[in-house]
Amino acid sequence: MNAALFPEFVSAMLDAEPMLPDAFPRDAQVHERFGVHRNTSRIGLTDTLRTAYPAVVNAVGDTYFEALAAEFIRAMPPRSPVMQEYSPALPEFIEGFPPLSAWPWLGDVGRIDWARREAHHAEDAVALTARQLQALSIDTLMNSLPRLHPSLRMIESPHPALSLWFYQQSGGAMSTEIRWHAESVQVWRIGFEVKQRRLTTGEAVLRHELAGGRSFGDALHRTTERESHFDATSAITSLIVDGLIVALEH
Amino acid sequence: MSFKRSLSIGVGFKSAHFEAVMSDDLAAVDFLEVHAENYVGDGGNPHRQLHALGERWPLTIHGVGLSLGGARAPDIVHLGRLRKLLRRHPAQLFSEHLAWSGHDGIWLPDLLPLAYDDAAFLRVAEHIDAAQTALGRRLLIENPASYLAAGDHLAEADFLNALHQRTGCGLLLDLNNVAVSCHNQGVDTKVYIDRLTFDAIEQFHLAGHSRRLLDDGTELLIDDHGSAASGEVLALYGDALRRAGPRPTLIEWDHNLPDWPVLAAEVERVRQSAVHALINWDDS
User: Fold this and answer.
1) CB contact at 8 A, B249 and B9
2) Which residues in chain A touch residue B220, judged by CB atoms under 8 angstroms apart?
3) Which of A146, A203, B100, B217 is the Cys-Cys partner for A199 at CB 3.0 to 4.6 Å?
4) How far is CA A174 from CA A151, A163, A166, B46, B265, in A?
5) Alpha helices in chain B (DSSP H)
6) Per-residue pLDDT of chain A (250 residues; tens, 9 = 90+)
7) CA distance A163 to A159
């Protein structure tokens, strides 16, 4: 087909009721042949989203997810030829999707799915060990700017997003009751394994401060000011145990 | 003997097979191919696996996102990703498609058809030149599977030959796509293959297809990579192989993914078919 027809063809690929460009014969067989391309694209994009958002799929069920994906694909088709980048925009779309308004937490469950996708593909980095950090004087450590692991993603949810994520991932089989409060979630990679866990408020604030480019000393100071119960020692320990400090800049 | 002139039989790698491939001491596979766009992340397990595979086997990389048939020049950002990937994982061959997949910033996971006219020829040739320059290497261009009438389908072979002449690109001949397109367009596969410039062929692809009956009773072949290559496709392969000479040959099996031993057996089946075709040169 001529390149002048590409815009109309793309629209016809995405529209709910496709109209092929006029240059194609108005013929049932042509329409069916065109349907092969529509199917390839629809199935490809739906599978891409399904793989990226397993907990959302578990939450709404496969049939509902397909319908949701169809709406999303029409509203926000891929803007990159790299399909594994499709699409970080689904959680926000879910939050604005009226039929799902009774599930306000689903967007954050989706954000955990997407954070896992990003962490999976993030740059490799080797964490500093406790021994390496202990070799430094307190002054050197406090004045240094720690570089955090490139896979680290944090989600601040007003909902128990990670508890719900685990619940959906286990197919709804988890026996413990979900306590309905806000959760700070950390998604990251240790080696090649993607992990996720809940953070205490202090741990979350400290990570945000460090990610914002503050020195250890500054970040600890600011976290202590905001969190009266902040336990600096255990917060630093958890940074090391999680393998999050990959370099110290002085 | 160089890889590029060898009867190497490879498989499209799927991460689900990683452990099985790496622990298969008898693995008969000669090389592995991956889709470029699945390895353009910064790091993590995909690159770890590809690095491990690359230490043991030759790799070939197959792009699906350059949209060489598109209305605009190849995306510079995407060319940058591919350049980085090819530096990180040296590939024996890098191939793309005679198709388009995006327009005006929207991308679809499909290879869409283009008209084989003069305007398209000049455009695609320019895009191949731009990509070869940006990547600093020769591209192989694959014939697509087609469903919609795109005019005279025989023009496709001429179009590919002319692209080879104009840009120096090699050809990747997908025999399953030949079978699918020729069936769907009512063209004789032998006539299509006869027109190709065999010196330009640098790689073969083989795959399975399915059949779909249209409402008016017409049977359409669908290039779905969901089964073993058919007898017809292997016969076309034998014919092309006799004329082009030994070339790396890839088995694509992307859907209804079988366990590794089934793929390993398919490698042996294709190898026997290829050896038979080359030895029994005078049979045809």
Assistant:
1) yes
2) 32-33, 36
3) A203
4) 27, 10, 8, 31, 42
5) 18-22, 45-56, 76-88, 118-135, 155-167, 175-185, 189-195, 231-244, 260-279
6) 788 889 999 999 998 887 788 878 888 889 999 999 999 999 999 999 999 999 999 999 999 999 999 999 999 999 999 999 999 999 999 999 999 999 999 999 999 999 999 999 999 999 999 999 999 999 999 999 999 999 999 999 999 999 999 998 877 665 567 788 999 999 999 999 999 999 999 999 999 999 999 999 999 999 999 998 899 899 999 999 999 999 999 8
7) 9
| Cis peptide bond N-terminal to A87, omega within 30 | yes
CA atoms within 13 A on the CB side of B151: 13
Structure tokens at B15: 């991460």
Pairwise CA distance, residues A9 & A163, whole Å: 44
Is the Cβ–Cβ distance between B177 and B208 less than 8 Å?
no
Q: Which residues of chain B have a CB within 8 Å of the CB of A123?
A: 42-43
CA distance A241 to chain B (A): 20
Token pair of B224 as six digits: 């779905």
| Structure token pair of residue B9 | 């039989």
CA nearest neighbour of A83 among A115, A54, A51: A51
State the pairing for strand pair A183-190/A193-199.
antiparallel
Which residue in the block uniquely carries the two structure tokens 């293959």? B193
- Please indicate whether, in this complex, the C-beta atoms of A29 and B218 are within 8 angstroms of each other: yes
What ipTM is given for this predicted complex? Answer: 0.94
Query: How many Å lie between the alpha carbon of A232 and the closest alpha carbon of chain B?
Result: 31
Contact: A30, B149; criterion CB under 8 Å: yes
**Contact present, B100 and B64 (Cβ < 8 Å):** no
Q: Say which of A7, A83, A122 has its CB closest to residue B37.
A: A83
Burial of B191: CB neighbours in 10 Å, binned 0-12, 13-18, 19+: exposed
Rounded Cα distance between A99 and A68, Å, is 10
B42/A121 Cβ within 8 A? yes
Interface test with A, best of B108, B111, B184 (most A CBs within 10 A): B108
Rounded Cα distance between A59 and B195, Å, is 54
User: Is A177 touching B (CB cutoff 8 A)?
Assistant: no
The nearest alpha carbon in chain B to A13 belongs to B108
